[in-house]
Structures are given as C-alpha cells and as structure tokens.
Specification:
Elements lengths: L1 H5 L5 H11 L2 H5 L4 E2 L3 E2 H18 L4 H10 L7 H6 L5 H16 L4 H8 L14 H36 L5
Antiparallel strand pairs: 1-2
The chain binds fe (ii) ion (FE2) (2 copies).
The site of one fe (ii) ion (FE2) has 5 residues, from helix 4.
Length: 173
C-alpha cells in the first residue's frame, strides 16, 4: 500500500496536472502541519489527490479536476484549534470554506473543483451532499486516507504486541 500511496512521484501524467500547485510556496507549507497525528497535511493531500485521480481516470470522470482539487482540499495554513478560534463554526464545517478561498487565490477553480473542496467533509459535517461524482470520490477517499493514516501506528503497535505475545507464550525463541 505504501508504494501505491507514493507512486504519484513517478507518474508524469499526474505530475503534469498538479506541477504548478506543487511549486506554490503556500502549498509546500502544508508540509509543516501535522495531520491525523502521524502525517503532514501535504502528504495527506497528495495521497487523497492521487488515489482519487486514479479512480476518476478508471471511471472516465474528470480526473484533472479531481487531481487538482484533491490536492487543495485541505489547503489552509492553520492548526485545527486556530480554525476553531475563528469562531466561524467547527473545524469540520469551516476548513473546507477556508481551503476553497485559499485555492481561489492561487488558481482558477471550475465548478467541479469548487464542489470537491467545499463538500469533501460530506457525512462528517453539515455540508450538503456533493453535486458531482468527482466530489463524492474525493470525499470518500479522504475518509479512507484518514483511516489508513490513523490506523498505521496502531497496526505497528498491534504487530509488536502480537510478536511479543508469541515469544512470551513460547511459540518462538
Ligand atoms: Fe479536510
Ligand atoms: Fe483531508
């Protein structure tokens, strides 16, 4: 799985679609924000963008919009508690609005890209359902990526515990 999550680096077609965004200084700053405790916001965004792009391409959907808006879906340079402190609503409800406004400062968004960013918290916020299949894909992949990211240290801890238990029970020496 790790390999497929990182394979965006070797996919020239994908890179051509997001190159200008990846060169942006503010987008690069997303690397400085811890995300889901184990990753950073840029790596998370690349994971969401690339998995969604791959799915959208297979399904003959607008994969260009999926790649670009997927990369910008969490484009805000604030910590969770700083978003809450703005008193504009909960982090879940407000950060997509922030991300969309920031994205519009650095690129032009088409209606699908806008919907992808604004609706990516569908089912975990008060936002209305996505208008496009592309938005639904990014929203579902975002949740899938979050589960993967949150679960990875648990898997490692669990794996270590199982190995220790095996040794304690004398099944191995
Ligand atoms: Fe988000
Ligand atoms: Fe996200």
């Amino acid at each position: 799985m790790t390999q497929s999550l990182n394979s965006w680096e070797n996919d020239q077609d994908y890179l051509a679609l997001v190159a200008d965004l990846l060169e942006n200084k503010e987008v690069q700053e997303l690397r400085n924000f811890v995300h889901h405790r184990v990753t950073n916001r840029l790596d998370h965004s690349l994971t969401v963008s690339y998995i969604s792009y791959t799915l959208a391409k297979k399904l003959n959907l607008d994969y260009q919009s999926v790649a670009r808006a997927g990369l910008l879906h969490d484009f805000f340079l604030l910590k969770v508690e700083e978003v809450e402190a703005l008193k504009q609503g909960s982090h879940n409800n407000y950060h997509p609005i922030l991300a969309c406004a920031n994205a519009e400062r650095i690129t032009t968004l088409n209606p699908i890209e806008k919907d992808i960013i604004l609706k990516h918290m569908f089912l975990v916020s008060k936002v209305a359902p996505p208008k496009y299949k592309e938005s639904l894909i990014v929203s579902m992949v975002d949740k899938y990526a979050a589960i993967l990211e949150v679960a990875s240290p648990i898997n490692i801890r669990m794996h270590k515990r199982i190995i220790k238990a095996i040794y304690r029970l004398g099944f191995a020496s």
